[in-house]
Amino acid sequence: MHLYKTTPGNILVHNNTALMIDKDWDALINQEHLYQHLTELSTSCKKIDSNTFNDILQNNILAPVGKQELWASGVTYLRSRDARMEESKESGGGDFYQKVYEAERPELFFKAIPQRIVGHKQDVYIRKDSTWNVPEPELTLFINSKGNIQGYTIGNDMSSRSIEGENPLYLPQAKSYEKSAALGPCLYITEKPIKQETVISIEIKRSNKIVFEGKIELNRMKRTLPDLASWLFRECDFPAGCFLMTGTGIVPGDDFTLQLKDEVNISIEGIGTLTNTIASK
Ligand code: DO4
Ligand code: MG
């Protein structure tokens, strides 16, 4: 099932039926058994006709976030390790990426407060002091306050490769700034964990022409999703739950950088497509 946060309210799509759920977003998603909870709620919710729903999908989707923090995982795929070793070789930081790829403890970093997160069809920013910028397409987990993965969404972990490559200690500036993260278009809530064969893909368009595309399966990730969640919850409490990006397995070649007005489309099987346009502050 898919749960959308929209300006008219929360909409659940279950068994091909769109239903309006009149509940506070944070209270709604932070359930112990979200799939079962929504299944029960769906029997008593008001239906929305398909024209109204399609209109809302076109114009009124918000990021599926309330009060939650957004965290991110790093170097969980070989491709991310290799690209980062390359970009930081002059600064001498390359070894750290190899070490963290092999280590038991994953790289987890704070990405954004809700205010810095945008939704589907909104602009994401590149920094004006950065010369090399990429989107990172990432399966993103919604984890409830008890530390259990309850849903999935699509994330774009916008990244400055020039700033991170200059010195790995600049990571927070390379990763966290206004509109540096996009989430959406919805929360995908399943009875069983998402399939390992799930395909994550990205397409970047410039003046309507594809300038980069790539895809990867989730099973290429070095770590498991529950392992990432459990490291994050070791010493942090999240009263409203939290979102966790799980790392990128797709990085464009070193000659590629985003330009203003590029359109980034990230798709994950079962969830949908997250579309954002590149802009700056
Ligand atoms: O190590 C820096 C960040 C890595 C990252 O964002 C990723 O692998 O997706
Ligand atoms: Mg990333």
Key phrases:
eleven-stranded mixed sheet; five-stranded mixed sheet; alpha+beta; 281 residues; 8 helices; binds magnesium ion; binds 2,5-dioxopentanoic acid
Largest sheet: 11 strands, mixed
Shape: globular
Average pLDDT, all residues = 96
> Structural class of the helices, strands and pairings?
alpha+beta
Helix content: 10-25%
* Distance between the amino and carboxyl termini: 35 Å
Compressed to H and E, one letter per element, the order equals: EEEHHEHEHHEEEEEEEHHEEEHEEE
Q: What ranges have pLDDT less than 50 throughout 5 or more consecutive residues?
A: none
The overall strand count is: 18
How much of the polypeptide forms β-strand, as a percent range?
Answer: 25-35%
Question: How large is the radius of gyration?
Answer: 18 Å
How many helical elements? 8
List cofactors, ions and other ligands. Answer: 2,5-dioxopentanoic acid, magnesium ion
